[in-house]
Amino acid sequence: MSQPHDTLSSISLSLADQDKDAFAARIGQSFSDWGFAIIGDHGISDDLIAQAEQMSRTFFALPDDVKRKYHIPGGGGARGYTPFGTEAAKDSDIHDLKEFWHIGRQLPDGHAFEPFMSANIWPEELDEFRDCYLELFAAFDKAGQRILEGIARYLSLEPDFFDDTVRDGNSILRLIHYPPVPADSPAVRAAAHEDINTITLLIGAEEAGLELLDKQGNWRPVTPKPGELAVNIGDMLQRLTNNRLPSTTHRVVNPAPERRGHSRYSMPFFLHFRPDYLIETLPQCIDQNHPDLYPEPITAHDYLMERLREIGLA
Length: 314
Ligand SMILES: O=C(O)CCC(=O)C(=O)O
Ligand SMILES: [Fe+2]
Fold this sequence. Notes:
It is an enzyme of class 1 (oxidoreductase). This protein has a single domain (10-310), classed as B-lactam Antibiotic, Isopenicillin N Synthase, Chain (Jelly Rolls), CATH 2.60.120. It is 28% helix and 19% strand. The chain has helices spanning 15-18, 20-34, 46-60, 64-68, 129-154, 161-166, 235-240, 300-310; strands at residues 10-12, 36-40, 80-82, 99-104, 172-178, 190-193, 199-203, 210-213, 219-221, 229-233, 250-252, 264-271, 278-279, 298-299. It has an eight-stranded mixed beta sheet with strand order 1-2-10-7-12-5-4-3. Strands 6-11-8-9 form a four-stranded antiparallel beta sheet, with no helix packed on it. A two-stranded antiparallel sheet has the order 13-14. Helix 3 crosses helix 5.
């Protein structure tokens, strides 16, 4: 049962409805072995995914000057459009080969978290854009909550432990376009990095390229089937769990020569804690063999700011 599995196999989220403990054991094992899990039957409808993928293709096909109207200078890419050649991984001086759009949580007017979370902007060229991605945001939130319930059970926490920690959290839906890659490009689509947040749920990784760095130091392709999610642990959850659930380094490599002429589209949802949530090592994850690696608690917001500065986005 606790033997490390040698491949990343797909886990059905519907198992959580039939046998909560079995689901928790399987995803817990997958996350502790790999920092990743492939999740099927996640409840996000095929139609919604297809519409969202189509909308992303349509948006990124707009002329450059139209897209750039939605770039907020000095906004760190928190909302709206970030052009090709802006984001670089930590300690990297070569930019990733991608452009992206960020959608944040829609807070009701006057919400206490407004100072931490900018308002969304929407492209006026695409009528259904707002509704489509707000629906996808909500669907990701719901799937994420069910996955977090499994993680809570795995860690011997109350099953609803994470509900309050992520309520109205600073989560972000990112639409990414990786354009065709010239043969002589020195850069890669996305350089090796770790995600900063709690967990990430990704649609679109069936187009090859995503790789994780395993515990032996080898790069391994992450290959969900169409419609499945690739889910990974971020630095904030790694920190909360005293590294019991690792935030695994991953990257998106350039395609084989015959696919270089094709774009790649993906849609990660970075599920975040509430900005005021204090990330303080879980006592369940500290023992004699695992002393507390993070004796200084930090709020999710302060941690995020620290990390965004490192990648040139704050
Ligand atoms: O596009 C992908 O498959 C992964 C993207 C990613 O890792 C990220 O944006 O943090
Ligand atoms: Fe990532």
